[in-house]
Amino acid sequence: MKKIHIALLVLIAVTIAVLISFMGTLSTYDTVQTAIKKKGKTVSIIAKLDRTHAIEYDAVNSPNHLSFFAVDSLGSSVKVIYNQPKPSNLEHSERLVLKGKMNDDHFECSEILMKCPSKYKDDMNQAKKNLQENAAATPAKNTTPQYQ
Amino acid sequence: MDYTGEHLIPGLLGHFFVTLSLVASVVATFAYFKTSRQRIESDSASWKILARGAFITEVASVFAIFGILFYIISNHFFEYKYAWQHSSRTLEVKYLLSCFWEGQEGSFLLWSMWHSVLGLILIRKAKQWEAPVMTVVSFAQVCLATMIAGIYLFNWRMGSNPFVLLRNEMDAPIFSQPDYLSLIKDGNDLNPLLQNYWMVIHPPVLFLGFASTIVPFAFAIGGLWTKKFGEWTKPALPWALFSAAVLGTGIMMGGRWAYESLNFGGYWAWDPVENASLVPWLTLIGGIHALLIYKHTGHSLRATHFLFLMTFTLVLYSTFLTRSGVLGDTSVHAFTDLGMNFQLLAFLFVFLVPAFALFAVRYKQIPHITKEEQTSSREFWMFIGSLIFFLTSVFIILATSLPVINKLFGSNFTMGEDAVFSYNRVIIFVAIILGVLTAVTQYLKYKQTDSKFFWKKITRPSIISLLIASLVLAFGNINYQDHGAGFLGAIWFAMVCSIYTVIANTAYIWLGMKGKLKLSGGSVAHVGFGFILAGILISSSKKEVLSWNTTGIFVPLGESKITGKAGENLTLVKGVPSTMANYDVTYERDSVHPQKPLWYYRIHFKSKTGNEQFTLTPNAFVNYKGNQGLMANPDAKHYWDHDIFAYITSLPDPEKNKDTSSFKPQSIKKGDTAFYSNGFYVLEDLATQTHIPAGGLAPDDKVYLATIKVFSKNNTSYTSKPFLINKGGSLFPVQDTIMSENLIFQLNNVNGNSVELGVKESNSVLQYVTLKAYKFPFINLLWAGVIIMVTGIIMSIVRRVELNKAGREIENLTL
């Protein structure tokens, strides 16, 4: 066997080892229920803001404490605590990807990736809504009453 | 219905040219295919005339499409969906081009334009390789033309046409009015993040980089197809180098854009979209080195083929990743799904399958040398380097493809707690190995190296490097603690290697090339690479957060994806100096763009110890056209050895902080004292004036001016001067605000020595910005490294083109 082939095999083996150890650093997408089963492990939950509960955020007294409820597609709701300022468009978000760990009674969130309607400029449904709003906001000049 | 005010002619022309470009590229592909299949000279020549004609028609159509679309956008014809969706009337002219790359259609068009330009050059220069190479390029043009065709085949729409009308794409009530256009006052506008000058120049360069990877690919295919193995490497080498230079520049311009306009707090975040553009560059560099090995020794021709085929395939795969919407949950800036996933996958597979099938069929016939390489030879270690480039790209692309792997295998993996570190802890070792290889390998000779010769040459640069590296480590204070001593050790080691790369390659220009700079393109590029590594290592490991918040001021309106740690944001109240690291920092004033809600905040920095002072003006779009919240652009002060970099992370929310409190009326006499929540105040003086500087008062009108001294609990005192204008019997109070105490005074009435004073305490008066400030040391090493590397590659291109020309002349002489 040539030395270059030995080097090749060694490097490929190293790459595989690196990939396996990389797999070890991965987390998983979970629902609220499966996240509860994996208490203390880092997971990502795809959820929506649960609008039946209020967002608790007191900017003046505890700026680094945000708490709200998130509900996943299966309908389970969980309290989320995020030790960061409240993202400005949380109320307007359509979807949240929450990375963090499940604690006893709440989800300790370390990162929020937000999907907001305005970011979906290519989404025609949203574009339609924007267009309607724009048109409604500007009073039409020639709106003649429609007599049929 | 007859609609009024529409401009339909450009759209009709656009549709015509879209169709023409598709047809012409099909004809060009077929004709070039026939050209290269003909054995009889005259047949081949006539096919070639047809093929060239078709390709030039195609090029003209692509440019016509671009021109028409630009005309539509710059004239704000919002009846066209593309113009409405991506531009607005207020958009500055310099950003009109950016509208092209915001949408998928426009960016495909840009890609196609670069293929056209490259194709025209190939027609002039490629000689006997024109037919096979242009078959591949023309076929790629067919694929790109289908992307913007927008033709219905049965019930399936192929591609997304940029000339579709808004009213045909949407079903909204306003389209029932013939004059609907008069209701559409403005377009949707360009995403504010793209309203940055780097975003005007970065995408065209990056796309030229992507587009140019097809040339080495096409040459490799041509070689396999015509069985002229290896011959293609000569003309392909300058092209591959060109591609590496442009793609490298494009990627780093993207980094520069991220550094200047996004809030990653840096130039690289291992975002899937960034990774997708880096990976083809890695395999391309691997391919170029494999090609050089082949040129000098005859080894690794198979690897050269494989890596060039891989490069373009990875460009196509990246296109799929970033445009299919599959990255939606993992990247902040991927394109959204346009419903073209099938087509994007088809684009990938129509190149991948035939290319690798042909490679597999011909594999055995590709010449190779059975004799083993010496471990003392240059080619042995160059090959190891190429292999490492390739394996690194495998690692990065697999990690980036997690969403695809999830789709394929039904798994649900995502990046772990610290995504960036998952990459860094691997890449740091790649940097170490590549650093050493780049430093040492040039000192080895092809075939084999006499060890005495090698040590003689390399000893001095090695000792100098070690000295400099120890000085840097001893005094550079590189002390990155976030991931433990092991990682810090790796950073130190990588630092030594990158310095070694710079020194050894600089020395080689004299020791190896005898100072002939013209021949030293490779060494110059390697020096640049070393600077890049050093710049990345220092700026990342010594990045400092200046805005540590120790006072606990609140931060209400935050960014949408907060990556920093709590406490990295500092709030500055307007006019009040605060301490930030070694600076006194004051939020002085703000101003707004005349046409859009783009706010500029002047932040003054004054050094506590020296004379240094400067003003940064970070800006932010606030609630911009349906983009709730703020989108901030940083500003930076550049020094030769570091950048100070600040951006707004939070502002008072104008909606939330609506002033709900009211003025409490209070009767008070001159000299009286009263309390408020945070202290007390004294009405010191009451004056009457008959004129105010603004003027406009009649002789009977009066102005009352109160002087109020405020003493807050924390031993600061302020003076407030509210006044009251009595103009023809009507009273006009002018309030005065003490910003830092949230206190507003209003003089309601004056009666001799006694006044009725309105007092309000409100959070809404507080004008503040919350910002994050960083210090990036030696970031300029990175940018300089990129420039040096690209210069080195360009020097090599010039040299290779000259050599090829000389080679041809010799051939002509001997014939």
Report on this structure.
The complex is a heterodimer of chains A (148) and B (815). Chain A has a 5-stranded mixed beta barrel with strand order 2-4-5-7-6. Chain A is α+β, with helices and mostly antiparallel strands and 148 residues long. Chain A starts with a helix and ends in an 11-residue tail after the last helix. Chain A is 29% helix and 30% strand. In chain A, 29% of the residues are buried. The longest helix of chain A has 23 residues, at 3-25. Chain B is an alpha+beta fold and 815 residues long. Chain B folds into 5 domains: 1-195, no CATH class; 205-415, no CATH class; 453-542 and 778-815, no CATH class; 573-607 and 616-652 and 769-775; 664-759, no CATH class. In chain B, 51% of the residues lie in helices and 18% in strands. In chain B, strands 6, 7, 8, 9, 10 and 11 form a 6-stranded antiparallel β-sheet that branches. In chain B, strands 15, 16, 17, 18, 19 and 20 form a 6-stranded antiparallel β-sheet that branches. In chain B, strands 4, 5, 12, 13 and 24 form a 5-stranded antiparallel β-sheet that branches. In chain B, a hairpin with a 3-residue loop joins strand 12 (635-638) and strand 13 (642-650). The longest helix of chain B has 36 residues, at 779-814. Chain B is globular, with a radius of gyration of 33 Å. The model of chain B is unreliable at 551-566 (pLDDT under 50). Classes of the chains: A alpha+beta (148), B alpha+beta (815). At the A-B interface, helix 1, strand 1, strand 2, strand 7 and helix 3 of A face helix 16, strand 3 and strand 11 of B. Strand 1 (27-30) of chain A pairs antiparallel with strand 3 of chain B, so a sheet runs across the interface.
